[in-house]
Amino acid sequence: MSDSWTERQEQYMEVAHNVCNVNRLSTKDGRFWRVVGWSLQVASFGRFTRQRFLEEFASTLGPIQAYPRDWREIPFELIVHEARHTQQFLLAGWFIPILGWCGRGCRVWAGLLPMALVYGLFPLPIFFAWGRFQLELDADCYAWRLALEQGWMSATEVRNRAKHRGAIVASWAYLKAWPKRWSVETYKKRAEQLIGAYEKVNVEARLSQ
Fold first, then answer.
1. Do 140 and 205 fall into the same domain?
2. Are 25 and 10 in contact (CB under 8 A)?
3. In which domain, by residue range, is 181 found?
4. Residues 84 and 138 in one domain
5. What's the average model confidence in pLDDT over 74-96?
6. Residues 6+ apart with CB under 8 A from 55
7. C-beta separation of 141 from 187 below 8 A
8. Is the pLDDT of residue 1 over 50?
């Protein structure tokens, strides 16, 4: 058994590039990520520690997906989730004149400012961060849809994951992005919609054979 996911990095890169071909995978080593973790600890009034950020969470900044080095493996659906965030950066980059129009390599970095405004501050940085909630929900739903299609997750696993993610996004890990009850209920509803659409396609496919 490998000691780190980095030994399978090429396989993970292939999964990421099937979603967005400007993705790069990295570890959460280095001063930059430690500073981000410290900033989140301060912003959460100590409720979300730097250690948890560095050891338990994946993060995406532009084209860079960063994972704790000590993880033995990364679920494919998480790779897809983070790659979806990079797609969001690409879309946001269109709103930056000149730089955002100079190709995907520039556009993904140009998206940093619009994404920071939407993800971090719209309409509030804490408790009612609708932009953050919606961007996370979009990335989760995109990943679960692909995971169902590829057989990485069952419908039951998607349902369980939706409840967990709804609670996490409403926690201090995401600076209380949205009220917990609303968050969990929205996640559960979207999961059921995805599962329903997936099962309908499967039934139609069987009937057409």
1. yes
2. no
3. 122-209
4. no
5. 97
6. 68, 70
7. no
8. no
